[in-house]
Design a protein that fits this description.
Length: 116
C-alpha cells in the first residue's frame, strides 16, 4: 500500500473498486477510508450474490503497536446503507441533463426500435 495504490481489496472487487479508486488517496483519513470501504462493500454486496455480511475490520495502530478488530453485522450498518442509497439517487438527480435533452425531445419516430 502506497502512493499509487492506497488500498488493498480481498475478495470480489469488481463492483466496489471504482468507488475506492475515485475517492481514496494515500492522504485519506482512517475515518474517510473506512466510510469509503463500506460504500465499496455495499455496492459489491447489492451487485454480487456471493458477497455479504459480516464485515471484519482491523486497524493497526503503528505508534502503539496494537491491533483493533471489529465485526459489523448487517443491523449495525443498515441505516448507513440506506443513507448511501438515498445520497446516490440524490446525486444522480443533481447531474445536469442538458447533454441528454436533445435526445429526449426527439420525436419517437426517429428512435431505433431494437425489436424490429
Amino acid at each position: 500500500i502506497g502512493e499509487a495504490t492506497p488500498f488493498c481489496i480481498i475478495g470480489n472487487s469488481g463492483y466496489g473498486k471504482p468507488i475506492l479508486a475515485r475517492a481514496l488517496t494515500v492522504d485519506s483519513s482512517i475515518k474517510f477510508a473506512l466510510k469509503t470501504g463500506f460504500l465499496s462493500f455495499d455496492s459489491t454486496r447489492v451487485s454480487a450474490n456471493d458477497v455479504g455480511y459480516p464485515i471484519d475490520v482491523a486497524i493497526f495502530k503503528a505508534t502503539e503497536r496494537t491491533l483493533i478488530e471489529k465485526r459489523f453485522r448487517e443491523e449495525d450498518l443498515k441505516e448507513i446503507g440506506a443513507m448511501w442509497g438515498k445520497k446516490l439517487k440524490e446525486g444522480i438527480l443533481d447531474i445536469p441533463e442538458n447533454w441528454i435533452d436533445d435526445m429526449i425531445s426527439t420525436p419517437d419516430s426517429t428512435f431505433v426500435n431494437s425489436q424490429q
